[in-house]
Amino acid sequence: MLKHLAHVERRWLQWGFAAEQVDRPWADHEPGSDDRWLLEPDDTLDSVREFFLAQCERSRAIAAGARLEDRSAVGGRFGPGDEPPTLAWILFHLLQEYARHVGHLDIARELGDGLTGE
Fold first, then answer.
1. Does a structural domain hold residue 118?
2. Is residue 31 part of a domain?
3. pTM confidence score
4. 33 falls within a domain
5. What does pLDDT average to in each consecutive run of 10 residues of the chain (118 residues)?
6. How many angstroms separate the CA atoms of 76 and 11, rounded?
7. Where in the sequence is the domain holding 105, given as residue range(s)?
8. How far is CA 38 from CA 2, 5, 26, 78, 117, in A?
């Protein structure tokens, strides 16, 4: 999940909002495949954690250099015919993405130990 969230940050802010060219923006899964959250043979907990932290740092830098109403640049994730979303829309989308996955983790934990967050 951590690698997936790192790529989500990368796709929406670096490749999406800033239109920076990135290699393999979908490297956490192959589009059109049922395989999700792929790990490479050389991925380790430390390497995935470092990648996640680096992506978050880059995302913060991109967001800090823009206004919420600024629209995404064209040329990365968004093409000339697209309606580029605003930074506010992207940040809200990221918040929703994280919220969904925190929910998934909470369910997995509850299934593992039977305890609920009372």
1. no
2. yes
3. 0.83
4. yes
5. 92 96 82 74 95 97 98 93 95 94 82 77
6. 9
7. 2-113
8. 11, 12, 10, 24, 30
